[in-house]
Design a protein that fits this description.
With 307 residues, the protein is mainly alpha-helical. The chain contains 11 helices and 4 strands, in the order ααααααββααααββα. It is found in: Membrane.
């Protein structure tokens, strides 16, 4: 997982560095949302790891039991970061949809100012949706049924509300992405002709990405529905099982963005490959057309000395 986030951060650095390049492949609005989402994707994955997996692995148990700061951090980070991650994926898909569906107005309308306004509202709406949890009691305790420690909100109504808010964001995203998938399919239905695959490869890739995002939102929604049923029926073991699934579904959803951008951009793939091959093997990579050639550091120094 650490390799994934290293790749994610590397792509962010590259995009920010290239944003002022007039020939940059990605528009500044995309770079802003991508970089912002990278932070919260990392945060949400860390939250799932710390607040769900560490208790299951019986790590840091003593600290969680003796420090109230852990429960307070759970209240202000866990659900909010996941909501922002889900919204971030919806916004990124919307950004790409707009760029494909209406490219003439995309750069004019979805500019840097609009991007920051969207981000501000994204954070405010997600945190406002969980304002109730800030006043709720959150505990870290041992559950006999699941035979593990876990963070939880004892109040059943508030716990169901926590689930309901995330479920609302997921369903909203499913509806939006389904509509966008349908519109993209209608506009670019000719891309499925054999002769057009190479010419419209980016549109096909984008459509696949949006379908994958929709699929993982559906999976997350099903998990939230089952978790709500478990909370309502006091089935602690089922709730515990659904909590574990979040460790897989949320990080998988987070991985879609960096891999999508690598698939879409040949130049980005080439530059990332140059960087990666220069680190582990201590090589300097040079680009020769579409090929990436690596030469050893000693050979490079010898060539320099000959010159």
């Amino acid at each position: 997982m650490e390799n994934f986030f290293i790749l994610y951060i590397l792509i962010c650095i590259y995009l920010v560095y290239e944003v002022k390049n007039p020939n940059a492949h990605f528009h500044s609005s995309f770079v802003i949302h991508f970089t912002f989402n990278a932070f919260f994707d990392l945060l949400s994955t860390v939250c799932v790891l710390v607040f769900r997996r560490l208790p299951q692995w019986e790590l840091a148990t003593e600290y969680f039991l003796t420090h109230q700061s852990a429960a307070k951090a759970y209240k202000v980070l866990f659900f909010q970061s996941m909501a922002i991650t889900i919204c971030g994926n919806i916004i990124m898909a919307s950004n790409r949809f707009f760029a494909l569906y209406n490219p003439l107005n995309y750069k004019r309308i979805w500019n840097v100012k609009i991007s920051f306004i969207i981000i501000i509202f994204q954070v405010l709406i997600c945190y406002a949706s969980y304002i109730h949890i800030l006043c709720a009691k959150t505990v870290f305790k041992y559950d006999n049924q699941s035979q593990s420690y876990n963070f939880s909100t004892p109040d059943k109504t508030l716990s169901l509300t926590n689930n309901g808010v995330l479920l609302f964001f997921c369903i909203f995203g499913i509806i939006m992405l389904s509509v966008m998938n349908f519109l993209i399919s209608l506009k670019f239905k000719h891309i499925f002709n054999k002769d057009d695959h190479n010419k419209y490869g980016s549109q096909i890739t984008m459509l696949i990405f949006m379908c994958l995002t929709t699929l993982f939102l559906i999976i997350t929604s099903v998990q939230l529905v089952v978790r709500s049923i478990a909370i309502d029926t006091n089935n602690t073991f089922m709730k515990y099982t659904m909590n574990n699934y979040f460790f897989y579904s949320i990080p998988i959803l987070n991985t879609l963005q960096p891999y999508l951008i690598l698939i879409l951009s040949h130049q980005l793939r080439k530059d990332v490959l140059k960087f990666l091959c220069s680190i582990p093997h201590k090589k300097i990579c040079t680009s020769n057309g579409d090929k990436v050639k690596a030469i050893s550091l000693n050979d490079h120094n010898n060539n320099v000395m000959r010159k």
